[in-house]
Amino acid sequence: MPQSAFQPAGLIGENHSRVILQTMIAAAASDGLIDDAERAAIERESGSDAETAAWLQAEYAQPASIEQIAASVGSDEALAAETYLAARLVCADLSRKEIVFLSRLSQALNLDDQLVESLEKQLELA
Measured between alpha carbons, how far is 69 from 26 in angstroms, rounded to an integer? Predict the structure, then answer.
């Protein structure tokens, strides 16, 4: 993964960053276990201040649902695509549960199949 797959939080706003991190945590938890590699990927994107660390711990304890993520994204197509990419980066091994999660997420975000395929190809090239 690149040093930071997403823009710095100061440039895109706190809500945008929160949605991306919530998605990464939900994706990591989708197979029932957040492993060390997933946690490291999330922490690379989150920063290191105490307030963020406390927020992350709360999110780890109770990850957002797909419905909550979709509601936070709303109709922002760019954020929807970035949200899917964030989830896909965390779901590197693609267990059955992760595949189901990604499928449900793409549907909830109203991403068409061609866009999802294009996003998957972007990840293959990265």
Answer: 9
**Cβ atoms 87, 107 nearer than 8 A:** no
pLDDT tens per residue, range 68-111: 999 999 999 999 999 999 999 998 888 899 999 999 999 999 99
Model-level pTM? 0.84
The tokens describing 68, both together, are 């909550």
Produce one character per residue of 58-92: b if its CB has 16 or more CB atoms within 10 Å, e if not: ebeeebbebeebbebbeeeeebbbbbbbbbbbbbe
What's the sign of the alpha-carbon dihedral 36, 91, 72, 15?
positive
Beta carbons within 10 angstroms of residue 57's beta carbon:
9
**Per-residue pLDDT tens over the stretch 4-43:** 444 444 445 778 889 999 999 999 999 999 999 999 989 8
Q: Please report, in angstroms and rounded to a whole number, the separation of the first and last CA atoms in the chain.
A: 7
10 Å CB burial of residue 39 (0-12, 13-18, 19+) is middle
